[in-house]
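Why AAA+ superfamily ATPase? Reviewers of the renewal asked for a concrete example.
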Amino acid sequence: MDHNILRHVIADQHRIIKQAKIIPRDYWFDPQANYVLVGLRRAGKSTLLYKRAQDLIAEGKSWSQIIYINFEDERLVGFKINDFDDILSVASEMTDKEPYIFLDEIQNIDGWEKFARRIADQKYRTYITGSNAKMLSWKIVERLGARYFIKTIFPYNFEEFLAAKEIEHDDDTFFDTVADGKLRMAAADYLSHGGLPETLIYSDRRDYLESIYQKILLGDIIARNNVRNPQALRLLISKVAETLMHDVSYRSLAKAVHNIINKPFGTDTVINYISYVKSSFLLFEIKDYVAKFVDKNSTPKYYFTDNGILKLFLINKVPMLLENQVAIALYEKYRDYLYYFNSRKTKIDVDFFIPDEKTAIQVTYDLNERDYDREVGSLIKLAKSNIEVERLIIVTSEQEKVIEEDGIKVEVIPLYKFLLDDFVN
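Here is what the prediction returned.
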């Protein structure tokens, strides 16, 4: 690789980083560690690397030590694994001090993990991003060993969304009519359009979100996995969106798609396609806490990583957006320790259960008499069961109160306050 091209790429990245307006985010980097950042396309991984570079400069490092390569730069078309050494050569030309290596969207280069392991062994401090979970196949994780921390980057949480919109708040804000109203409006915006950072830039957010979805679908899923039936994949994702709030089996998804395309579409194909979609970070799943092992893995509940993308599939389905937003907030913090709870034996049906926190959560747009038994009754039954639970919450669109029944307290919390609760921050 021509060293002059690499130096131009690095110099241009320095200019971009210097000019970047960066919203503080709730991510911390150990200065002695190497990192691989993964997550949904346009969730802000590169911006976090910009922030890390800015922090290094603030600590007294020089720009010549910041070796930032973005592999989506068209000047690097044709870059191969054998060209990686040229990055180290250019670093030695630019500085005689410790370089900091930033490799952005590195999944575009086959065999990148071999170089990543070598430079970690050589004690280069390294930061890597990628949009595709194929980066994290078990073979690659094994090759990287303990040399890198893996950090999943999500779209803005509500705190970050408020910071990006320059909406300040504190404990007194809830008692100020005007300030509280701004928070409610921001929560409605966040619920409807999601947290991808660039949605705050564009006036036509739907067009922007549609373009991101198409890039994920065509580039991160179809092209990288050589999907043979793109039409069936599109329908499958749409059907998953329709089943939100409910557990769903691979078999039922296969049947639903088959009935539309009228062509063979088996369970094994559904399993493969769902794995591809999860690998693009478009979807995540939670499992039933009380289900048998086989059922845990075959009948999960699926949620979308961003509400704005989910809304592309929905018309007037605010309750589904509400539950999905709560799922995102909980999953970002609790990951595989987050479950739903559906016991056919006891008739207890709870949307979210975090056993380590002894907390159960229901989500309903409006808590009314018709849904009272399902929402409140299931929480009361759970509290009276042998399952240890201490905090019971119902997240609503606007309602707020405390329900006490048989000595058991249930907190009814509007979405905007829940998203600011320490429980999810």
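The chain has a mean pLDDT of 94. This is the kind of structural detail the renewal will allow us to pursue systematically.
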